[in-house]
Structures are given as structure tokens and as C-alpha cells.
Specification:
The protein is an alpha+beta fold and about 120 residues long. Helix content is about 25%, strand content about 20%. The protein has four helices and four strands; from the N terminus they run αβββααβα.
Length: about 120
């Protein structure tokens, strides 16, 4: 799915979503590849293509690190069901990221993502 085309997502000419990558398993020492600045993330099930969740943040890497429960994840997300779902499905969840110029652009991109049929809407 190309949200930039299908949903009219406007990003700077040189900006684009990364390729889809398998979500890393911290129990195996795998790495998360994500921007340290503002942007968005998008997760889906690898085998079915089902959209799982999306979000934005001022530091995408830090924000995505909170998608797993303790002791694997960081932060104070209060949605335990979302965190447990990602952990239970490691190995079949993939993600892509979009670096943005600032938080305002990241929020605009997040609004475009919200039009998708996601398992978790926020």
C-alpha cells in the first residue's frame, strides 16, 4: 500500500517511507532501524498484510521502543494489549518508518495513516 499516493499524504519530495522490515526481537539482540527525529511508523502482519498499528513522535526510534512491554520495551504506554500483541507476534510483524522535517509534518502524516483499517487505531 502506498499511502503517499492512495491517501494524498504530502511529504517533502525526498522523503519516503522506508522499506518494510521485520520488527526486531530484543530477546535475540536484534536492532530497530528508525529515525532519531520526528516521523511516523506503520506496522502490519507480514503474512496477511493486515494493518496493525501506526503512530508518530518527535523521536520515532524512542516511540517505537515503547511498542513492547517491559522488560523489552521502554516508556510508559498504557495500552498493554497493544504491547502484548506486538510481543506475541514478533516474527510476523513488520514495520516501516517515515522521517519528517518536524512534529507538525509527522502529525499530518499520522492523520493520513489513520484512514487505514488498523487493528489498533491509536
Amino acid at each position: 500500500m502506498d499511502l503517499q499516493r492512495e491517501q494524498g499524504l504530502r511529504v517533502p519530495a525526498k522523503a519516503a517511507f522506508s522499506n518494510w522490515r521485520l520488527f526486531p526481537d530484543p530477546r535475540k539482540g536484534e536492532y530497530l532501524w528508525a529515525p532519531f527525529g520526528p516521523g511516523c511508523y506503520d506496522l502490519r502482519e507480514r503474512d496477511t498484510g493486515r494493518l496493525v498499528l501506526f503512530g508518530s513522535g518527535g523521536n520515532v526510534c524512542e516511540r517505537m521502543a515503547s511498542l513492547l512491554p517491559a522488560p523489552f520495551g521502554t516508556g510508559t504506554r498504557k495500552n498493554a494489549a497493544k504491547r502484548e500483541y506486538v510481543l506475541r507476534n514478533l516474527g510476523r510483524i513488520e514495520y516501516r518508518t517515515l522521517a519528517c522535517a518536524d512534529r507538525k509534518a509527522a502529525k499530518q502524516a499520522e492523520v493520513a495513516l489513520s484512514a487505514g483499517d488498523y487493528l489498533f487505531k491509536t
